[in-house]
């Protein structure tokens, strides 16, 4: 059995590596977050300062440093590039699938562990985020592991019908604290907030019966605090409270206000999860309802996952800023519940519901059709330009990107996978259906990342990134005009500024600059700048971007 477990872990790790590592550097990092975080890590290395985060060589207090530490290690190995920026999350993908297999096997059996890993790796956004340079994959994994070890602690302390929990409750409480500390170091105290809210909901579900020891709870907090103090405390002692205070104020602002373009609508996260976590989102639905439970811990763990789902979705519905990855912690319970449905159907512990197949067929076919439509639109995109009113979008659509129509096969593959899954569902071959839905989706995402996303990126920002890369090594200033972008810092490989005036846009446009200044703006905004600043020389324009240069003023 141990050999079988070891072989499965190795095989799962190899498959995950093949899914997540190839093509990491095939497409440029996307504004804002991907480039923002990569630039923070690059500046850590440039400044040789690993305790404080900077962007544009100014203190950046929005995030703790854990993820940036990971990226700096990757950048020292692979250089300042896209592959290095995304490599930590590829490793997180491998770690997550192996973790879910091991957790699922421990709670249920090997089949469930495989189903859970399959559901997570074979759903749209959960898979895609392992190919990104965003913070959330590691953040979510650390929170999940903290909650998982706390659940094991609870089971051990309260005598649940488990014989394989050989360690003392203290052991599980300490590990829960370690992973909570890592989560807080990765993205902030919202990790502890989610954790405590889930525990509070479980307390209500448990009819206010205290299910933990106060000494163990204190130990959990002490362990988590000691880990977080390694940065919060060190930074405060070294540089004073200003940086940490600014960080905490920013975290509070995220919950009470929204940034421009981030307001959304009340049901935003439910729609995001439904569409973005397909196929798991559909197959999770039956598991929200009562099923036959084979043991006390079977029912209990399912309830923990349902509570985690509702805490995450309701919490981030209340939060004013609504961004896709804010509710990404819900992907863990959603994929668990999807695996749970297949597992119970296979064991005949629950009756298969036909409505699930209908919904999966409709949503899966729509998503496959959208992928197919992308290729069709791309082949005819220049014909659509007259029907678009936005000047910048019109110019984006003029990008010289070669499409041959074969990209549409990705959408067709998605539809075929859905059809195969529906056939197996009809035959009540549930494990084969799970492989069709989740395995097919994983392959679709792999192919889309390789052949569709790089071409789409050429329309949105490709020309601007190309221009910035050409500026690398040139002694000059580079700045965006009329919109905010982190791209000039990372892709022009900005050096620490020697002239503090260079931070001021007015000085770059009108001041006595000491080296050439380049600017990137958009076609619908350029006239306002060139009319007001006649010494701006237009170099060229491409795909909606206009590239300007201001030479060093002649001495009078």
TrEMBL record:
The keyword Glycosyltransferase applies. Keywords: Cell membrane, Glycosyltransferase, Membrane, Transferase, Transmembrane, Transmembrane helix. Residues 63-225 form the Glycosyltransferase RgtA/B/C/D-like domain. It is a multi-pass membrane protein. It comes from the Bacteria. It is found in: Cell membrane. PANTHER family: MANNOSYLTRANSFERASE YKCB-RELATED, UNDECAPRENYL PHOSPHATE-ALPHA-4-AMINO-4-DEOXY-L-ARABINOSE ARABINOSYL TRANSFERASE. This is Glycosyl transferase. It comes from Chitinophaga agrisoli.
């Amino acid at each position: 059995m141990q050999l079988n477990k070891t072989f499965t872990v190795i095989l799962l790790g190899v498959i995950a590596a093949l899914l997540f590592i190839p093509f990491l550097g095939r497409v440029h990092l996307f504004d804002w977050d991907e480039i923002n975080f990569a630039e923070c890590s690059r500046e850590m290395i440039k400044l040789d300062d690993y305790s404080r985060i900077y962007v544009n060589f100014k203190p950046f207090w929005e995030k703790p440093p854990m993820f940036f530490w990971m990226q700096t290690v990757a950048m020292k190995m692979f250089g300042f590039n896209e592959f290095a920026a995304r490599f930590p999350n590829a490793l997180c993908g491998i770690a997550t699938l192996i973790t879910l297999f091991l957790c699922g096997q421990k709670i249920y059996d090997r089949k469930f562990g495989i189903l859970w890993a399959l559901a997570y790796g074979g759903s749209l956004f959960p898979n895609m985020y392992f190919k990104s340079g965003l913070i959330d994959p590691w953040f979510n994994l650390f929170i999940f592991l903290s909650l998982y070890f706390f659940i094991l602690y609870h089971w051990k302390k309260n005598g649940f019908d488990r014989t394989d929990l050989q360690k003392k409750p203290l052991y599980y409480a300490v590990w829960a604290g370690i992973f909570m500390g890592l989560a807080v170091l990765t993205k902030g105290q919202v990790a502890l907030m989610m954790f405590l809210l889930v525990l509070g909901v479980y307390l209500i579900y448990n009819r206010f019966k205290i299910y933990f020891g106060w000494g163990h709870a204190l130990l959990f907090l002490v362990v988590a605090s000691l880990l977080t103090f390694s940065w919060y405390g060190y930074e405060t002692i070294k540089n004073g409270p200003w940086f940490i205070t600014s960080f905490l104020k920013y975290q509070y602002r995220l919950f009470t206000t929204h940034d421009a373009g981030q307001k959304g609508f009340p049901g935003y996260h439910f729609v995001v999860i439904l569409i973005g976590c397909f196929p798991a989102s559909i197959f999770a639905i039956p598991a929200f309802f009562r099923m036959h439970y084979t043991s006390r811990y079977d029912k209990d763990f399912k309830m923990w996952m349902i509570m985690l789902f509702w805490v995450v979705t309701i919490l981030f519905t209340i939060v004013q800023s609504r961004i896709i990855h804010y509710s990404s912690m819900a992907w863990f319970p959603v994929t668990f519940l999807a695996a749970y449905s297949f597992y119970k159907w296979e064991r005949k512990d629950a009756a298969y519901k036909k409505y699930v197949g209908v919904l999966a067929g409709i949503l899966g076919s729509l998503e496959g059709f959208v992928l197919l439509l992308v290729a069709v639109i791309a082949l005819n995109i220049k014909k659509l330009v007259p029907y678009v009113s936005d000047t910048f979008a019109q110019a984006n659509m003029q990008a010289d990107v070669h499409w041959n129509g074969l990209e549409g096969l990705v959408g067709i593959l998605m539809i075929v996978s859905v059809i195969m899954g529906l056939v197996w569902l009809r035959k009540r071959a549930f494990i084969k259906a799970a492989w069709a839905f989740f395995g097919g989706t994983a392959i679709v995402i792999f192919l889309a990342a390789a052949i569709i996303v790089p071409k789409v990126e050429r329309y949105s920002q490709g020309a601007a990134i190309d221009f910035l890369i050409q500026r690398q090594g040139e002694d000059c200033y580079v700045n965006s005009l009329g919109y905010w972008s982190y791209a000039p810092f990372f892709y022009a490989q900005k050096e620490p500024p020697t002239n503090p005036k260079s931070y001021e846009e007015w000085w770059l446009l009108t001041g006595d600059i000491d080296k050439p200044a380049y600017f990137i703006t958009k076609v619908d905004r350029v006239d306002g700048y060139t009319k007001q600043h006649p010494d701006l020389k237009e170099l060229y324009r491409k795909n909606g971007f206009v590239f300007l240069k201001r030479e060093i003023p002649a001495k009078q």
